[in-house]
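Pipeline run #58 for the internal structure catalog. This entry was flagged by the ingest filter as a single-chain record with no existing model, so it goes straight to prediction. Upstream metadata was stripped on purpose; only the residue string is passed forward. Reviewer on rotation: M.T. Logging verbosity set to normal.
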Amino acid sequence: MDNPHDIDLLIVGQGLAGSLLAWHLLQRGRKILVIDDRHASSASIAAAGLLVPVTGKRLVLDPQAALLLAEAMRLYQEFQEQFGQAFYVAKPMVRLMQGEQDAATYARRHGDIHYQPYLGERLNLDAYDLHAPEGGFVIRQTGYLAIRPLLESLRQYLIDRDSYRDAHLEGRELQAESAGIRWQDVRARRVIFCDGYQARTNPWFDWLPFQPAKGEILTVQCPHKLPDMIINAGSWLLPLGAQQYRFGATYEWDVLDEQPTEQGKQRLLQSLQTLLKNNSPCQVLDQVAGVRPGTLDKQPFIGLHPGQPQLGIFNGFGSRGSLQIPLYARIFAEYLCGAGQLPQAVDVRRYYQHV
């Protein structure tokens, strides 16, 4: 303890946020250590990894969609070259029409020049085992990230560089010193928390207005005739091949844990039965649960503590991490290395008055 291990940054959490931030910092020559308890409370492990630029009943286009997608595609291609494995799967989405309001919203958005790269044609779905009497329409530039294998590859990458440790870190364990922040045998110039919804109980950042929501997802085997597309009907059905699909997801705001429930499974199976047209049963192969680290204003929390600038946070991406984290991990890494500024919309300075 008298001769601490000196590093530039200590990152708490090896979910998608912590992993991608660590990657960018290592590329910039920083000496880092990532602390993780093997994803004991990581939303990333249970996430579907969907990348969808147009979302919600009103078909809202993310104003940074082009930039977010370009950055995500570049980084996921970089990982493919680094690890010799494709983690991102491009797959179009079909959104089912559900009433006149959906049709009117689609027609209005489809005529908007800003939506033209993302909204495709109407589809007749009568040939498939779907309850879709009004058909659907295509959303382009969508797909999903295989998060589990990516995180495992990045964990090994960190281990090989002596930049990973299996451990659980509580915010109250940190000690401020003149040369940085001390934790056990480590002394870091900065500590960045990427600890998902657990940040609500972190004494350094419990003033931020998180709105976490538990979600459960099933992996099912279904003998139905379905298009090779992500099917969105409020819930989503993601084809994995060999008639296997991931289906989700539930939303639960009161009980926040990582335990799959029978109630969640039955709710999803009922929703799946409503979506599919014939009565052939689907077999449940797996069920997972996680807690999305959502936020009050639907924007992530990125930046430094107002009173302790040696402490930072990179969190709050909710269910959009696979799309948003690549861009913001690069921006935050550059900021931590002394270059550039944080976008005002995501900077935690917007909540400094609540500290």
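catalog note: The chain has a mean pLDDT of 95.
catalog note: The two ends are 32 Å apart (CA to CA).
status: ready for reviewer M.T.
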